[in-house]
Give the backbone structure.
Amino acid sequence: MSQINWFPGHMHKARKEIAEVMSEIDLVIEVLDARLPRSSENPLVNQLRKGKPVLKILNKQDLADPQVTEEWLAHFNSQDGVRAIALDASQQKLVKRLPEICKQMIPARAKAERPVRAMIMGIPNVGKSTLLNAILGRKLAKVGNEPAVTRQQKRYTVQGGLALSDTPGILWPKIEDLDSGYRLAASGAIKDTAIEHELVATFAARFMLDHYADNLRERYRLTDLPEIADDLLDVIGRKRGCLRPGGVVDRHKASEILINEMRAGTLGRISFETLTEWQQKDEAARLAALEAENAAATGEKSNDTH
C-alpha cells in the first residue's frame, strides 16, 4: 500500500479564498461522510474557521452502519462549539430545519433579527451540493457523483434567516494516515483517475472480509469466502462474468464492481472506521510524539555534557 494524495490547483486557490472571507462568517457547516467521519474531517477546516462554531453534518447516513454513526455523533456533540447531526438527502423535514438549527447556534444574530452567515464546507463528493440544493429547495448548485464538481465560491440567501456561502470541496495537501487515504478513495472523495483502481479495490476487499463478511456472502451468493483479498476480487469477477479469453478474470472490471457497489450501498450499510479505532490511533500518535520529545531532550542534555 502506498500513500494517496490528490490536491489539484483549484483546491489551493479555494483554501486561500475561504481564509480571506472567514472573518465575515458566523458559523461553519461542515459536511462529512457518515461512513468515514474522521477521515472526511478536513483538518484545514479547524484551521480556517478560527474557533467559530461548527455544525457537523454526517451526510449519507443511509449508507453507514447506524450504530457506528451514533457513536460518532456522541463524540462530536461532546466537543465545545460543535453540534452534529446525521442525515441524508431524503430527510427533507430535517434538512428544512437546518436554518433554525444554525440560528440556535448563533443566538445573538437571531435576536438582532440579522441572518446567520454560514459557510458550507467539506471534502469532494461528500454530498455538499446536493445538501445545498435541498436547503434552498431548488436546484442551483451543480451536482455530480464525482469529486471536484464545485470550483468556486457562491452565496445564497435562504428563507428562515440564513445567508449561505458554498465552497469547492477541498482536501488537504498530505493525507498522513494511510488507511484514511484508501478510505477516501473507496468512498469516491478522490478522483478515480488519480489512483490505481485495483489497489483501492484490494483495500476494500480486505476491509469487507474483516468487518462485513456476511454482506459479501449475501450480495454475491457465496457459501465460503476466500481469506485473501486478491482472491475475493477473482471470485467476484467470475460470479459477474468479468472474464478475458482463456477464462482469465478481468481484475479491473471486478475492482469496479466491488467499489461501485460499496459506494452505492448495495453491499449494505457499512462504516469504514469506528471511534474506538481512532481513539487508539490518536493515543499511539500522542505517545510517539512524547517519546520523540523525550529523545530530543535527552540528546540535547547529552550534547551539553560534551
